[in-house]
Amino acid sequence: MNPGMEGTPPRILVVIPAYREERTIGGLVRSLRERYPYDVLVVNDGSMDRTSETAREAGAIVLDLPCNLGIGGAVQTGFQYARDRGYDTVVRIDGDGQHDIDDIPKVLEPILAGRADAVIGSRFLGETEYRGSIPRIFGIRFFRLLVNLTTGYRVTDPTSGFFAINRRLVAFYSDHYPSDYPEVDAYILMHRLKARAVEVPVRMYGREEGKSSITAFRAVYYMVKVTLSFLINRIRRFG
Amino acid sequence: MNRVTLFSICASAGFLLYILEMVRRRKLREEYSILWLAGSVVILVLSLRQDWLVGLAHAAGIAYPPSFLFLVGILFILLILIHFSIAISKLHQMNKKMAQEIALMKETARDASSGDRIVNP
Known about the structure:
The complex is a heterodimer of chains A (239) and B (121).
Chain A: E1 12-18, H1 22-35, E2 39-44, H2 51-57, E3 61-64, H3 71-84, E4 89-92, H4 104-112, E5 118-122, H5 134-151, E6 163-166, H6 167-175, H7 182-193, E7 197-201, H8 216-234
Helix pairs in contact in A: 1-2, 3-6, 5-7, 5-8, 7-8
Chain B: H1 3-24, H2 30-48, H3 50-59, H4 65-113
Helix pairs in contact in B: 1-2, 2-4, 3-4
């Protein structure tokens, strides 16, 4: 889908879900605002520290969820904001410094060129120095296989939270977005919409602050839950 | 009348009255009382009509008729629990929607009250 009318630049919103990221969110928002002309939206997922104030002071628009909804619910609120305010494209990145903001143009390019509805940054394409824990790598391989077998998307990084989507997907995700590991489930939704997805190589770093929302203990639970949700989405009706 | 029959009549009748009273006092919504009421009525009827209970137990291949009462009780409890899981999922969904609406509305209000926000074309 082509953004905007002739002459008007596409309106781009960077969405950052944040839960207790007061240490890193300010710097991230500031460098985004310095580097790019895009609006930055931080969705504070019910954290009671200074995440919200820090982000606002750094120049972000901030949505404060009154309670913790989990990553999917928080990101979805960002999509709803983008839909309501008429943004053309949403870029979603993590608030913990895991994603390199220098890669944003790479993630945007195929959408702005009208070649894709979704562009996913992959840490496994091109040369990579990414080192994950064993359960995480196992999980990624498992989901890669699941996505490949059921949707035909040949993804390398099915759990990547660094992606950009166009208006059409923003509108759809505003109404239907999964709660845990939403990125894996999203492939089923994209498959349903016959969305064109492109993966681009990006750099990802270990987390600077805070702990990952995925610990080894919860990995198995999430794997079962996501697999179930994924397979059910395959046979679900979307009204 | 044997003791197990007497016991199940008293228990199911008492339970039935308790549920009705809770609904009357609006402590329990009608929609959540239906399965409880149905379960206790079925058990009460089967306790009063021994011949029906024996017939049904026999048809189900259960040698000891009161066991059939347990089976009925367990089935109703299962139904009620599924009903609860569905109700909780619905509440979860509604809660999420409301939290999202609140977050969006707070931003709209902030946007409107401060004069120097981003002005979108």
